[in-house]
Hints:
mainly alpha, 7 helices
Amino acid sequence: MIDAFTAMTERLQPAARALFRMMLSTIFIVAGASHLVDPAKTAARLEGSPLGYLATSLAPAEPLVVLSGVALLVGGVALLVGVYTRAAALGLLALIIPITITVQIGNMAALGPLFKNVGLAGGLIFFITHGSDAFGVDAWRSARRDSRVH
Length: 150
């Protein structure tokens, strides 16, 4: 029975990885849209964070929020459709690290979001190392390229 279950789950792995990639992408798409729809609200959160000054010493909060919103949205959509998956995951990871440092660290009320970002980082590291191996544009392009070679 265990062998049959293992065989079944192994057959489902490509679909499960694609579902994981698509589900992971939604938080970045929603966050990016939120940054763009109401940048003043997100900028106020950044400015009110204990370490927010690390970001706002580089540029005013609202332009940073808009730029991060665009990056979250573009990276999230790329992850969703599996195009340039490794680069999209790397870009999103590079973005959530400073967001986590400036907004969540030092804020005891943000422990949930802090550890959510730690979990998101784990998911992004998975796709940096594995790419989009099923049901994505990268996989389609790779299969198409391979069919031309053979």
